[in-house]
Amino acid sequence: MTKRYGLIGKNIDYSFSRAYFAEKFEKLKDKKSIYVNFDLQNINEFSKILENHKDIKGLNVTIPYKQSIIPYLDSLSKKAIAIGAVNTIQINKKGQLKGYNTDWYGFYHSLKPMLKFHHKRALILGTGGASKAIEYALKKLGIKYTFVSRTKEEYNLTYSELTEEVMNHYTIIINTTPVGTFPNIDQMPEVPVHLLSNRHIVYDLIYNPEETTLMKEAKGYGAKVKNGYEMLVLQAEKAYKIWNKPFSRD
């Protein structure tokens, strides 16, 4: 019997996951498992996916549905509850759905080896579903953080508030927005890159292109840069383990 896995998202032809798992199944000589993209224009189409594909064992979830998927699930892991976003769904034989978040795990383990003693504060660019997993990972690492977005809210900075003093204070910059993703590769968040130095880490969750404009500009001022590829690999491997472990509602 076929074991179907897949990705829930919008405009996901570029998907990392489909190619990654196709290669993984080939390496494992697993001819029963397949991985497909479910490109939804609206999250309310999700129920039809389950009705039409009774062989689904697990799913990944990407932008823009990491939060809006939650009401469709039967239960959540403790970490998914704490984060408030889901990127992995485990489905049991009775059709029950449990949500997990493995994004935080991928980010945590890809950032940790880069950290030096002076990396104590981070700016998180963006406030969407992806930023919630980053927030959780930074808490685990003991790194203080502030959100940056285009509009002013009570607990965040705007890009126009990123002064020299602020940029000296925050030595980790994490882009969780889609700005700079293919095909709009010339774009970048409005970060004052000229205020960066070799004390900074600039981590862009984007993986296509391999080097974003933000990374390129930051590197020019001495910052250490990283894209989201390793994070994706780590979260994907964690998701695969979840799909193939016993189902628990706890």
Automatic annotation (TrEMBL):
Gene3D superfamilies hit by this protein:
Leucine Dehydrogenase, chain A, domain 1, NAD(P)-binding Rossmann-like Domain
Q: Does Mitochondrion appear among the keywords?
A: no
Question: What superkingdom does the record give?
Answer: Bacteria
Q: Any idea where the Shikimate dehydrogenase substrate binding N-terminal domain is?
A: 7-89
Key words of the record? Amino-acid biosynthesis, Aromatic amino acid biosynthesis, Oxidoreductase
Swiss-Prot/TrEMBL GO biological process terms: aromatic amino acid family biosynthetic process; chorismate biosynthetic process; shikimate metabolic process
Q: A GO molecular-function term, please?
A: NADP binding
Which pathway does the database say it acts in?
Answer: Metabolic intermediate biosynthesis; chorismate biosynthesis; chorismate from D-erythrose 4-phosphate and phosphoenolpyruvate: step 4/7
Q: Which GO terms describe its cellular component?
A: cytosol
Q: Write down the PANTHER family for this protein, in alphabetical order.
A: BIFUNCTIONAL 3-DEHYDROQUINATE DEHYDRATASE_SHIKIMATE DEHYDROGENASE, CHLOROPLASTIC, SHIKIMATE DEHYDROGENASE
The name under which this protein is listed is Shikimate dehydrogenase
